[in-house]
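Hi support team,

I submitted a single chain yesterday and got back a structure, but I'm not sure I'm reading the token output correctly. Could someone confirm the output below corresponds to the sequence I sent? I've pasted both exactly as they appear in my results page.

Thanks,
R.
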Amino acid sequence: MLRYLPFLLVLALWIYAFIDCLNTPEEEVRGLPKVVWVIIILLFGEVLIGPIAWLVAGKQRGVPAGGSTPSEWHRGHRATYVAPDDNPEFLQSLKKENQKDEALLKDWEADLRRREEELRRKEQGEDKD
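Hi R., thanks for writing in. Yes, this is the structure output for that exact sequence:
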């Protein structure tokens, strides 16, 4: 089983680079047109030249907004998590959904009563005949 590991790693890198290249917008591709990068990845994938070239030189790696790294951003910014049962917007949306469901249920009940009444009238009309 261990002898297949290098082949699987090469295949995984090949597939990752190919999909990454396809999903990258054209304006983020460096050096060559995107189509050329796809061909390079496919042709030189077995020897890892194509995928490594794409990952190193092909895709433009952007700096986060404001020039800060994610760790710096997280140090200065505390995310305030609000549990769903404490979130007023979420509770309001539940109330609205509940009201819609209740209105629908009332309509169904009224329709069911109407149909039952029609059946009773038909049965009483047939019994008289």
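A quick pointer for reading it: The radius of gyration is 32 Å. Let us know if anything else looks off.

Best,
Support desk
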